[in-house]
């Protein structure tokens, strides 16, 4: 799987997890899904920040959107940290999760639109495949703990 395909796969999984967490009514299920979101978000951010973003940051046509991506990761991390300290049965928990979902969906739209389109002009198929292999290894390592 090349780098972009891997990221798109992760995006679909994250959207599904967020939707399921918002729909969950039982507190224990919310906690389980939030833990799964956290694990996958950390792995996804590491893949992007350690492998995918650095070479894109060097190019003028992707520099700014990469910097925005780093900031969007930071915002998601702040919201996630607050969620982890909020009672899962509270209305506040659900509101924070909704904001996290909206923030991540915005991030996904920008990546899959502008960033990935430009990345395809910067990287050839072999480079995308190599980046995908490196990212998959980072993901495995992050999920393993």
How many domains? The number is 1
**Beta fraction of the residues?**
under 5%
Q: Spans with pLDDT under 50 lasting ≥5 residues?
A: none
Helix residue percentage: over 70%
CATH topology: Four Helix Bundle (Hemerythrin (Met), subunit A)
Q: Sheet bearing the most strands, described? A: none
Quick one: CATH class?
Answer: Mainly Alpha
Summarize model confidence as the mean pLDDT. 96
CATH homologous superfamily annotation:
nmb1532 protein domain like
The tally of helices reads 5
Q: How many individual β-strands?
A: 0
CATH architecture: Up-down Bundle
| Overall geometric form | elongated
Backbone structural class: mainly alpha
N- and C-termini, Cα separation: 23 Å
Radius of gyration: 16 Å
What letter string, H or E per element, gives the SSE order? Answer: HHHHH
Task: Produce the secondary structure layout.
Layout: H1 3-23, H2 27-57, H3 60-84, H4 91-122, H5 125-144
